Amino acid sequence: MVxxxxxxxxxxxxxxxxPRSILLSLHTSDLAxxxxxxxxxxxxxxxxxxxxxxxxxxxxxxxxxxxxxxxxPKKFSTPMFWNDDELRxxxxxxxxxxxxxxxAEKAYTDILLPIINAHPEVFSLTVHTVxxxxxxxxxxxAYSFEGEPAAxxxxxxxxxxxxxxxxxxxxxxxxxxxxxxxxxxxxxxGHNNARLFYxxxxxxxxxxxxxxRGEQVYNTYGDRPNADLLRMYGxxxxxxxxxxxxxxxxxxxxxxxxxxxxxxxxxxxxxxxFLLEEDILDDYFVLDTAGNIPPELIVTAKILSMPPAExxxxxxxxxxxxxxxxxxxxxxxxxxxxxxxxxxxxxxxxDDALLAASDFVTINCRxxxxxxxxxxxxxxxxxxxxxxxxPEPEPMxxxxxxxxxxxxxxxxxGGERDEGRKKPRVK
Length: 427
Known about the structure:
Layout (H helix, E strand, L loop, with lengths): L13 E6 L18 H6 L4 H10 L8 H6 L12 H5 L12 H18 L11 H14 E4 L7 E2 L18 E4 L15 E5 L3 E6 L18 H8 L10 E5 H8 L5 H16 L6 E5 L6 H11 L2 H10 L9 H16 L5 H9 L6 H25 L10 H21 L9
Antiparallel strand pairs: 1-6, 2-4, 3-5, 5-6, 7-8
């Protein structure tokens, strides 16, 4: 936690600067100096080069970054490290299918382990293990920055440089790096007030908003829902206005086509192919805290449920239906949302009761329940909106408008004729 106790800062002011020499990356690690390893290192993609460098540097007593690794965490609260009982509390959420532990371990086994085995002079199978691999990957997830390896102009660490070489449209190369000190700033959703900028010879943390005396400096991960915060960084915000709930395209298809016969299922496959070709049917449809139904979800439901002749006509004209709600689509979407809600093991009331018994709930379980609550609240909001939805009145025809205008004139004239007459006495 960094507090501005002694002074206030204005937007654009420098908070601190760091020499480029302290950055840890493939380009600065001593591992890159091993001639026999260089071809294999340069062939690695994604996070793998940095993970291997960190696995190497973190276990060296003479590493330039030893003191840095000494203060970095060795244990994490991300679901990657949870036990089965804790993971059970994530059933139904958008987290459970994105943890990626099996995929990560396959990358270690298939990509990094052969390199470790091939260089016993550098690595040890008892030291550079899959557990260390997970630790280094988690450190990159939570603490790394993305910027230029050798920038020639000022660039923000979380955005590409727009002032690229005038002779080339290609974006400047970027590299994932560990940046000691800069990664000490905390996250708080919606309160980002500092950003790291890459200068030619140093990195600068600058204010992007005015920071009053006594305020905390935040360099955040962005405005993310709790499902992402928990999966990637191991914490949640109690009330997160950026929460979302994901409804898989498979769920939508399953609900909308559940009563079809075998022949109709073949027709549905053509509709699904059409929706995929038109980029309408997504892997996930996303609902935010307002509970609004995405237009693409309405269009998907319409196409999946329209009569065969209407679908054939739409294919010919290539004119998609408008994302306008109808009573039939409203009923169908109610089924979709109710089915999505049924995927959780517990109800809103169950979750509230579990959180109330906080003495008996671990921090991991509490975070999982918080994610569930955010998603369930969105689903309930969307369901409430659909249940009270009413179709808009049909616009009046020309004939109806004339009739209404005529009726209004007659009423006005009648009132004028009555004006000045003595009202009958009521007995």
